[in-house]
């Protein structure tokens, strides 16, 4: 199918802006991008008038947990994952992916997964279900670590398998890669929502982290690291990981190190603010809320420091059982209002920069000829008001691989 989108303001995802631009989509890819009159409009397919609207790359939410509750009935964020059939959870994951698509997200990076998420990825890629592309992770955690402490010790079947010791960690990487995951996720600190641990707890020894990073890189997989504590961030940086998630206790020395190493940072500011604002009413336990408040108090300052130091930030919300899907574009507003990015810089963080961090820069994340036709049409101007993206009714159209999957009043010529 061919589409010609013309008349609107085009944001290329890399900081470029074209007033009254034209974008041609053909056979699932971007065929041409340019100013009106410089790009011949295709005589084939659909011709869409985007005058008064913004045409931009589809957005990334690069830190989510799709296997989360998506229903209307009340539920317990803590017990739902262990009291619900795996098959039922996968249906919720499909609904979450579609909701993200309706918000303008064309790529999700799942951050604690395995075979179920890989299965959903395949279904989305095959067009069995409409939804964004899904980047899947294989989660590896230590006994008593952040992932393991989400569930009571009385459970003999842990939803997140554990691996202890360098050899077991290597074997876990290999098993995940065999299942088809796109990256490996580990922890080098305790967490906020896990119970019975502390943020300062070390998760994995240097030898275990080194084994995981070495094995993953040898098999062509990136490594993403959950790290709140200063020690956890330093350990991850020294091991040569690819992305750090959260970065709550980042300081000037570490920020300089991340910038020099080219290590990407996904702040997940959205969930930090949500837990403080709405965690209690959402059923989050007092222990977790206390940790959330302590982390939130320093989180924004740490990310501001990182941004000033030149660390490459990219957008992710940490949507999960503790914070429902649908708030994906709030991360852009947080980057602008809490950190100091310009709206254009926030758009880059949620498009081309996120694509780089996920290893997809040669496939998507920008409006460039040859890349996948992952395109968002917005009724309004995000550069004038970044919160325009939070109004789902103003998401006029969403294309994934050239397929128009969300349409709200696009005008035909």
The total strand number stands at 20
For the report, how would you describe the main beta sheet? 6 strands, mixed
Relevant CATH superfamily of the largest domain: Metal-dependent hydrolases
| Average pLDDT taken over every residue | 95
Strand content: 15-25%
**What is the name of the CATH architecture of the largest domain?**
Alpha-Beta Barrel
Could you estimate the helical fraction of the residues in percent?
A: 25-40%
What is the end-to-end distance? 16 Å
Integer tally of domains: 2
> Can you list the strand order of the major beta sheet?
3-2-7-17-18-19
Describe the structure.
The protein is of the alpha/beta class. The chain has two domains: 105 residues, Roll (Urease, subunit C, domain 1), CATH 2.30.40; 299 residues, Alpha-Beta Barrel (TIM Barrel). The protein has twelve helices and 20 strands. The strands form four sheets. The protein has a six-stranded mixed beta sheet, with no helix packed on it. The protein has a six-stranded parallel beta sheet with strand order 11-12-13-14-15-16. It has a five-stranded mixed beta sheet with strand order 5-4-1-6-20, with no helix packed on it. Helix 4 packs parallel to helix 5, helix 6 packs parallel to helix 7 and helix 10 crosses helix 11. The model has no long low-confidence stretch (mean pLDDT 95).
